[in-house]
């Protein structure tokens, strides 16, 4: 990737910028390869010469890598944020959630994290006509940064916002500690806007399976996953070729010379031409020991070996991706017949989902708290300590029926009755956020109506009581005679 020189930028900032550009360029090929596997655009390498090349050019693909990503992503659903020590709506959380469409945007960011091993959440202050606080998400194809292991935060982040048709960077943003450099390139060169702010490096990574020495995690589309998909695709291509030729019986020729396997120019025909060809005539040779060739026919071979190989690859893929066999296997599988059996068949995937959300949660919390600080004009070093209890709320990765969830909730509410009067109690019964909000709104309206009815009844009773009516007409000092 070419070196970028920006006007009005220091040498240290230039070194940081170009080091990050170089890192982004070095990772591009592998990241694009994984995107190709996810999008089913990866080309399988031709192996062997028995299968006709035409079958390799059919564009036969498998979507197993995409399935491995999507099945896990669909079990990692962010329902929102909670705050035990306060009311998030008072801080403007609803505006941040709705203004940034976080429900959808976070889901997209998590898919990118699973494909490329990480994504990035970037906080910025909104401009005219925009929400006060913005959260944008970038994938690893267009963003990278350096990790500070002592502070456990990003030391910087580069976001490439636009490229030319030739792939050259034409717009970027470099996020440093308290300083953001935004640059755009046109026909006249680079223009730079430097912004100072009070929110440190306003970005967070979203790593999948981070570990010591690899803070940005690993891709779910691992080398093993890609290799197994390639092997399965090749088996599928062989099966496709076999489907055309397996009905053709094997023919053994006795007494024929090799001339029938040659082209007109004397060159030997390709193996696939011999296999696919039809025997029309074999000339007799009166000078030969056996003047006439003898043809022996044997039954056609079964495609079962190809199906068995494909199924074996499917099961190996499922083990590698922590998926149940039912996700990709085509035979030798049984559907679970009970909730316990279903849970047991999915336990590896469920554990994977819980681990993934545990890894993402701290960074989403920090990005959201920073957005709330921007929303309320609070500097990073002035964020109230009470905000530290703001946390993510993830949907249960297990798929439970409403009846089972309600039954389990009732048992818990029976043990702790006062929970029934709280939001937690309604969640235990299986109500979603929308249902809880509607139920509470209906309850408030009913309580308001009840208070209005009680006040009206009290006023009516007062008008019917002569003593109270006199009290209303004359005041308390005139009722009951002299005080002495």
* Portion in helices: 40-55%
Tally of strands:
12
Strand content: 15-25%
Distance between the termini: 101 Å
Structural class: alpha+beta
Query: Which strand order spans the largest sheet, edge to edge or round the barrel?
Result: 4-5-6-7-8
Series of secondary-structure elements, N-terminal to C-terminal: HHHEHHEEEEEEEEHEHEHHHEHHHH
Please state the overall shape, judged from the principal axes of the Cα atoms: flat
Mean pLDDT metric? 84
Total of helices = 14
Could you list the spans in which at least 5 consecutive residues all have pLDDT below 50? Answer: none
Tell me briefly what this model is.
This protein has 14 helices and twelve strands. The strands form four sheets. The protein has a five-stranded antiparallel sheet, covered by helices on one side. A three-stranded antiparallel sheet has the order 3-2-9.
Q: Can you put this structure into words, describing what you see?
A:
With 484 residues, this protein is an alpha+beta fold. It is 43% helix and 16% strand. The protein is built from 14 helices and 12 strands. The chain has helices at 11-38, 53-56, 64-73, 93-99, 102-116, 223-245, 271-276, 304-320, 339-345, 347-375, 402-415, 423-428, 433-464, 466-474, and strands at residues 78-83, 119-125, 133-139, 143-148, 153-163, 169-176, 179-186, 189-196, 203-205, 250-254, 294-298, 390-394. The protein has a 5-stranded antiparallel beta sheet, covered by helices on one side. Strands 3-2-9 form a 3-stranded antiparallel beta sheet. Strand 7 and strand 8 form a beta hairpin. Helix 6 runs antiparallel to helix 8. The longest helix has 32 residues, at 433-464. The radius of gyration is 35 Å and the shape is flat. The termini are far apart. The model has no long low-confidence stretch (mean pLDDT 84).
């Amino acid at each position: 990737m070419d070196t970028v020189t920006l006007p009005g930028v220091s040498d240290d900032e230039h070194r940081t910028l170009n080091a990050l550009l170089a890192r982004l360029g070095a990772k591009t090929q592998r990241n694009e390869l994984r995107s190709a596997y996810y999008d089913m655009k990866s080309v399988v390498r031709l192996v062997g010469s028995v299968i006709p090349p035409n079958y390799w050019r059919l564009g036969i693909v498998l979507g197993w890598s995409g399935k491995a990503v999507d099945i896990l992503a669909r079990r990692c659903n962010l329902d929102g944020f909670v705050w035990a020590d306060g009311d998030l709506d008072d801080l403007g959380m609803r505006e941040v959630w709705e203004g940034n469409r976080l429900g959808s945007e976070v889901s997209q960011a998590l898919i990118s994290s699973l494909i490329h091993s990480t994504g990035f959440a970037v906080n910025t202050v909104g401009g005219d006509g925009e929400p006060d606080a913005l959260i944008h998400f970038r994938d690893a194809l267009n963003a990278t940064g350096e990790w500070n292991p002592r502070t456990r935060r990003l030391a910087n982040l580069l976001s490439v916002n636009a490229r030319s048709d030739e792939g050259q960077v034409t717009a970027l943003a470099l996020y440093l500690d308290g300083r953001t450099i935004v640059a755009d390139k046109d026909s006249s060169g680079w223009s730079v806007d430097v912004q100072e702010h009070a929110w440190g490096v306003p970005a967070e990574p979203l790593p999948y399976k981070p570990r010591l020495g690899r803070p940005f995690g690993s891709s779910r589309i691992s080398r093993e996953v890609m290799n197994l998909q390639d092997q399965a695709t090749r088996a599928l291509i062989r099966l496709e070729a076999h489907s055309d030729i397996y009905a053709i019986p094997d023919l053994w020729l006795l007494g024929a010379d090799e001339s029938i396997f040659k082209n007109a120019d004397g060159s030997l025909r390709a193996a696939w031409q011999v296999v696919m060809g039809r025997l029309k005539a074999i000339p007799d040779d009166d000078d030969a020991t056996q003047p006439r060739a003898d043809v022996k026919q044997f039954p056609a071979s079964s495609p079962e070996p190809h199906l068995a190989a494909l199924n074996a690859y499917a099961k190996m893929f499922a083990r590698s991706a922590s998926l149940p066999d039912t996700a990709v296997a085509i035979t030798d599988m049984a559907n679970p017949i009970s909730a316990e059996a279903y849970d047991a068949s999915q336990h590896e995937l469920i554990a994977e989902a819980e681990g993934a959300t545990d890894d993402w949660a701290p960074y989403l919390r920090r990005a959201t708290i920073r957005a709330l600080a921007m929303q309320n004009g609070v500097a990073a070093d002035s964020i109230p300590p009470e905000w530290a209890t703001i946390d993510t709320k993830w949907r249960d990765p297990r798929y439970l029926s409403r009846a089972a969830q309600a039954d389990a909730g009732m048992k818990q509410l029976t043990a702790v009755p006062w929970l029934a009067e709280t939001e937690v109690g309604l969640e235990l019964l299986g109500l979603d956020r929308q249902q809880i909000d509607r139920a509470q709104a209906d309850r408030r309206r009913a309580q308001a109506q009840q208070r209005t009815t009680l006040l009206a009844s009290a006023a009516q009773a007062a008008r019917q009581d002569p003593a109270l009516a006199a009290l209303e007409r004359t005041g308390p000092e005139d009722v009951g005679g002299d005080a002495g």
